[in-house]
Amino acid sequence: MVMIRKADLPETIPVFPLPGALLLPRARLPLHIFEPRYLQMIEDCLKTPHRLIGMVQPREKAGKDGRTLQTIGCAGRLTQFSETEDGRYMITLSGASRFRIVNEVTGFTPYLRADVGWSDFERDLGKPEVDHDFDRPAFLNLLQKYFESQSLSTDWDSLQDAEEELLVNSLSMLCPFDPEEKQALLEAPSLTTRRETLVTLMEFGMRETGDGETIQ
């Protein structure tokens, strides 16, 4: 994966509002693209030097600012691309940095673009984060109970060996949380805070299914 430098970050990027689709820095998000306006977005993105697309959660209701999108999203670099025989695109975005929407740009393309600011998230471009308080056995024990309560399955061997940032971020992206909960995970200021938020959401999900469990 080619690293993105601060100087490479553009002021305006295409944005893809997709409920529940969360992208985080240094994580990967596969997407299946079939709507004509987003097929055009991919084609235009491939022509740019940065190849960045901003993933952002739509709001259920317009905010006080009148916007229908969340203010904070995460940009990913288009690192894998293939086309199906019927003209659909299968792509992978590699998370580069979160951003803050400054202004939505409409009228020039069939898809939405936004002027964005990157300054609040400069450490997204750095090395993987470390969670010094991470208790892997306790976390995986809770995770197993949560997956059982949700009738989910996974490759437990790979989870045992995964780096803590990859583990927490991948689960934040994959677990079936609602868009507002995904947004809370995205906006977490540190890996430790994201892991704590993830634990809280799993515990809440288990209580809803009657399988209450608390991690110490």
UniProtKB/TrEMBL annotation:
Pfam families documented for this protein: LON_substr_bdg
Q: What is its EC number?
A: 3.4.21.53
Ordered alphabetically, the record's keywords are: Hydrolase
**Secretion signal span:** none
What protein does this entry describe?
Answer: Lon2 protein
Which species does this protein come from? Jannaschia aquimarina
User: Where in the numbering of this chain does the Lon N-terminal domain appear?
Assistant: 13-206
| Family matches, as InterPro entries | Lon_prtase_N (IPR003111), Lon_prtase_N_sf (IPR046336), PUA-like_sf (IPR015947)
